[in-house]
Structures are given as C-alpha cells and as structure tokens.
Amino acid sequence: MVGNYLWMFVLLLLLGYGLRRRGVFTDESVVWLARLVALAPLPALVVSLLAKASFSLALLGAWLVGLLSVWLGMGLAWLLGGILRLAPTTRAVLIVQGSVSNTGFLGTPLIASLYQHEPTLIAAAITYDMGVTSLMIHLVGVRLLMHSGTARGVADGVHGLKRLAQLPVFWATLVGYGLMLMQLRLPEPVLFTLEKLGQTTTPLVLLTMGGMLRGQVLGRRWKAVALIVAFKTLVMPMLMWGLLHLTGMPDFVARALLLQSAMPTVMVSAVYAAAFKVEPELASAVVVVSTVVSLALLPAWMRVF
User: Fold this and answer.
1) pTM: predicted TM-score of the whole model, two decimal places
2) What confidence tens digit (pLDDT) does each residue in 168-190 have?
3) What is the per-residue pLDDT across 70-88, written as a single tens digit (0 to 9) for each?
4) CA nearest 94: which of 269, 212, 294?
5) What is the CATH code of the structural domain delimited by 32-205+219-302?
6) Taking the domains of the chain in order of start, what are their residue ranges?
C-alpha cells in the first residue's frame, strides 16, 4: 500500500513536470493552481482531519519539540555558514531554507495520504505545520532574509502575524482544533463534503510542484545548492530523530515529526528571497532540488519508526 502511494507521488510529480514542458502549465496557471489548493482543498483537509482526531497532551509536546528542532537547526546552519565562510546572503539562505520544511503544502497532505486511518498522527503533523513552520518562516525566516537582502521591506512581528491571519489554513486549523477540543461532530453531509474536497489536495499539490520544476536549476551555484539540500534532507531529520529519542515522544508523534522534518524546503522562502533580493536563483533551485531529493528519501525515513 505504501509503495503504491510513493509511486503515485512520483508519477504525479512527473505528470506536472511533463505538462509544464508541453506548455499546458504556464507560470500563471501554476500560481493559480497553488492558490486554489491553499484556498479550498487544503483547509478542507485540515478541518476534516482535526474533527476526527482526539486531543492529547502529546500534541503540545509535538509543538515544543518541533520548535526546538528548528531553532537548533538554524543555530547549526549559522555555525556551519561561519565555518565555511559563506557570503552573508548564502548563509541566510542556508539558515532559513535548511531548517524550515514544506510541511503545509506538501508534508501534511502526504502524511494524510499515508496514514489516513490515524487521525491523531495527522493532527500532530498539522500541529507542526501551523505551530512551527508557519511561525518560524513568517516571523523569523522572513526577518533573517530581509536583513541580509538589498531590497527594503517590512518584516516585524505584527506583519508576520498579519500574514498568518491571511492564510485560510490558519483559520481552518483553529476551527479544527475547536471541534477537537469541544468534541463536536460535524453534520455528516458537511464532513463528507470536506473529506472529499480534502482528498484532492495531494494530487493537486504534486501536479503543482511538478509544474514548478525546471530542467536546469543548478547552474554555477551547484555546490551551495547541494550543501543546503543535504542539510535540509539529511541533517534536519537526523536532528529530529535525536530529539525524539531524548524526549521519548509517543510513536504517533515521532512518526509525524520525523516525516515533517524530512520534507523539502518551504516554498514561500523562495518568494521572500526574491522579494528581498537574497540570491533568489539559489533559493528557487534549493526548493526544486530539495523536493526531488526529499521524495526520494521518504521511504527510508518512513522505516525509522
């Protein structure tokens, strides 16, 4: 069963890439499709899954361990950048893109597909996404990139919170947690509709990401790309693995956090890098390459727990 899902992930990614090469997908259509996923299927998936999960204090532990892993990852990336004497902009890209995962647009849908009969495990994955990834990229990552870039911008805490409040999945998570905590059952027609809409998330996400792939992405910066991708897809999951053993998290939390930490670089990091002119070509290449490498390594990380 797992093998079928992994083949589906790869084939849909290749289909999206093929549609882009054939001209069916354009820059505009890929952006439109990504916005569509963020507006409807992904929030529906989150609400329907959280509504079926049971609250556990382990979810609070998942949030704390997730935050700790990203902070430690950023610290290690900062030290590594200093040891290697990277340029300040490259160092900033390493810190942000090497530590923060694509947990919402890719991680949560994939984990929901792989563990569809374990709603509490999926709830831990969602907790990591909204409580760790979204906070760190919109409140911390964006500030690091802004201070390293040449373009002017505003990236304080207030603007970061505003960006969070503009995400439909943020409100979907609040609604889902409210239903979970109050143990409220959605009307069956509503839940059925949300489930079916949410099930389209994974195929649409993979098609979208396939449409974002480029044949030539490495260029002259291939060493920097390789360094950041290796840090993201190898060092961060190993760091999470160590933390999970030290903290003794329950099995369902451990699996969710390890897989989320093994996801590729968060996509919005490339958007922020372009906005603040922090090596945008490098940042875009890291997103593409880390996506391919992450999916290739996913079966190995799934066997750890």
Assistant:
1) 0.90
2) 999 999 999 999 999 888 999 99
3) 999 999 999 999 999 999 9
4) 269
5) 1.20.1530.20
6) 32-205+219-302
